[in-house]
Amino acid sequence: MQTKGISILKNDNITRKIGIIASLFLLSVVFTCFTSKFLTGANIMNILQQSTINGCVALGMTLVIITGGIDLSVGSMMALSGMVMAMLMTAGVPALPAVLLGVILAVVLGMINGFLISVLKLQPFLVTLGTMSAYRGLTLIISNGLPVRGFSSAYTNFMNSLNGIFPVPVILLLVFTIIIFLVIKYSKYGQYIFAIGGNEEATRLSGINTNYIKIITYALSGFACALSAIIFLGRLAAADPQAGNSYEMNAIAAAAIGGASLAGGKGSIVGTMIGVLILQTLNNGLTLLNVQSFYQTFAIGLIIIIATIIDRYSSK
Amino acid sequence: MEKTDSIVLRMQGISKRFAAIQALDNVHFELKKGEVHALLGENGAGKSTFLNIMSGAYKQDAGTIEIDNEEVEFKNPYAAKQHGIAKVHQELQLIPEMTVAQNIFLGNEPTNQFGAVDFKLMEEKADEMLKKLEADFPSRTITKKLSTAQMQMVEIAKALLFNFNVLALDEPTASLTTREIKQLFRMVQKLKEQGKAIIYISHRLEEIFEICDRATVFRDGKYVDTVNVADITKDDLVRMMVGRDISNEFFNKQTKMTNEVVLEVQNLSNGTNYKDISLQLHKGEILGLSGLVGAGRTELVRAIFGADKFRQGKVFVNGKEKRIRCPKDAIRAGIMLIPEDRKLQGFVGTLTNSANVAMSNLDKYTHIGVINYKKLKEKVSEITDILDVHPKNNDILTGRLSGGNQQKIVVAKALNIEPEILILDEPTRGIDVNAKREIHQLIKNLANSGKSIIVISSELPEILCLSDRVIIMYEGKITGEIQGKEATENDIMKYAMGGN
Question: Has residue B478 got a pLDDT over 50?
């Protein structure tokens, strides 16, 4: 039997993917039946646009989870890089270099996580718990705890230029997803992160520089956060030092719904993106039905647990 | 019939099917009180499934289990335990961070009148049990500090808590030193004298003749025969297991060795496990590295391969000094290691065979950043076909293969990078007669084609049958060197125990 690619865990993956696509479909059908506002072009575009921030973060998170790690500092990295972009722009730096510097900063923040985890062999959970607080603290320090507004209208205009047709954030996320998908599937890097997540020592003894791969992975998570910061600034025309609180939870939830295992070695880009859409569709649909947001939080919790149960008992 | 001849366990007509595979087909087994009974067969013969049914982990599709001539049914492993059936796993199931006493009493902790765990009583009782087994460590020891042999004792002590009548030992000697094996056998003898019945599984046939009274052989899930060990020879047993004659295991010892030095190690030390080691490896040579477990052999080869750092010393490949700081450096210098523990160090269970085999040199199949999977799979299939890996589907996850085939995948990965120097650490541990022979043949062939090889093995017959030259280590130092033709087990043991 010949199949394309060394698709990892492909048997499990196919049933799994069909399962979550079906859930998303089912969810949409239910909302379509109960509210006429759900299945409209504007609302679908709305869901997509609202998914972009979590989408970027969750993609980076998925890579980290595949290696067997976790990145709790994503929300803080997003806030810090976004804050730096906004402050540079209000200080008169043109949008492009300001954004570029913010991106570089986020990549460096991610590399710091990666360095501590791989070279110093510290636990990912504790390292990123620490940097979650440290990076958040830095954001508060440089901003004095206040939001930053009034930066380059050229920037916000650009980010909102295609609203109603095909919003720039959606394009950004789509491009990012496709690139990551291809990288995972066809590059050595893609093979190595699954190998590390499955058995790091065996991978190292196969002559692979596992530290290097892990640092790149955490750096990519930082990059993904910078991307979500770019979208955040465009949508709110402000940088908020409290932005991104508990984003790590949404990202982990999306990855888990998409079939990623926190034990490492397992995860899917398409799965994560569907996970992101499921979470956002649920939010959107329940809002349209005028369900109080408290119930939405509760429903999301249930979805995560159900997905975990299905995952546990379908893979055997 | 004497009392000692009474049947404690009788399993009749046992069958078990997993999806498409008939793992067991109408097999029989009888165990007498006070006997050591070997259960033999190649990997995949159904031994593990049989033990799992006996210990309540699986339910049989057909057949009956009788204990003391009474039919029983095990709903779960706990029920089997209550009926006096104990099993010591191949992979020990102890919690490393706990003390020995805590492990023995896990789930059965004695409590005082307040409901709190009575640690003092627990340790006293545990010490008593350890004493019965002639263990040389107190129950307060943290388990991870014990040797494998000592951990096995803890497992057996744990079983003693249930006052077992039947004890199954699954490959107990796989990672024991000769001395520890002696100790284990003494313990088995004691248990036997106490009237316990022991089921003994091992791939080392010498051991069967040393301690077993009877042997039952399975082949392809079917019952072959039960024999008195005293009445048969090793060849008979092998024939029963394999179903045909296996040609002489001791084939031509001499390989096409030359005097050209390909690898030279000078004064290598890490300060603790090995000190001041110097050795040379010639082109086309098979060098056996012998010694007791803990003599520093594994640490030495790991350092040569760059898996661990060394403090002093130099490594030369083809006369040139190489700085080896990580496995990648070693692979570039043409050195590959097949590590000791295949599950932990050899392969990634969640990857396919193709991915595992190609892992070390994905560069070869990558063009401008894109992996050419077609080319990769073709190349991998070439190698796995030569090694005869089963099943013949490289899209399967390596974690799902049998031990012998997993080892072949690890070997395939090493061959795929075409190393000039191949180091194999315990290459045949826990794999069956047939796969073992194939791997031995492969090592010979590699040497004959001009590759240079270092083999570490705790099995002396393996070292003797493979090596052109044997180096023996004791407590981190080289204590002896013998030409393969002249080597005997006694000579090697003498050096391995520190004598010269």
Answer: yes
Assigned fold of A50-311: ABC transporter involved in vitamin B12 uptake, BtuC (1.10.3470)
Q: How many contacts does A have with B, using Cβ atoms within 8 A?
A: 99
Cβ distance of B351 and A186 shorter than 8 Å: no
B166 pLDDT exceeds 50?
A: yes
In angstroms, what separates the C-alpha of B425 from chain A's closest C-alpha?
13
Q: Which residue in A has a C-alpha nearest to residue B335's C-alpha?
A: A207
pTM of the predicted model as reported, rounded to 2 decimal places: 0.81
Q: Do B350 and A203 touch (CB under 8 A)?
A: no
CB B403 within 8 A of CB B430: yes
Q: Domain boundaries in chain A?
A: 50-311
Would you place residue B253 in the very low, low, confident or very high pLDDT band (cuts 50, 70, 90)? Answer: low
Fold classification of B261-496 is: Rossmann fold (3.40.50)
How is chain B split into domains, by residue range? 3-242, 261-496
> How far is residue A159 CA from its own chain's centroid?
19
Residue A124: cis peptide before it, omega within 30 degrees of 0: no
Cβ-Cβ contacts under 8 Å, B325 against chain A:
none
Contact: A266, B359; criterion CB under 8 Å: no
Please state, in angstroms and rounded to a whole number, the distance separating the CA atoms of residues B424 and B457: 9
Q: Is the per-residue pLDDT at A302 higher than 50?
A: yes
What is the reported pLDDT for B412?
A: 96
What is the homologous superfamily of the domain B3-242 according to CATH? P-loop containing nucleotide triphosphate hydrolases (3.40.50.300)
- Residue B197 structure tokens: 């019945």
Whether pLDDT at B289 is above 50: yes
In angstroms, the CA A91 to CA A99 distance is: 13
ipTM surpassing 0.95, yes or no? Answer: no
**Measuring CA to CA, which residue among B237, B80, B234 is closest to residue B165?**
B80
Assess A207–B contact: CB distance below 8 Å, yes or no. Answer: yes
Facing residues of B11 across strands?
Answer: B29, B65
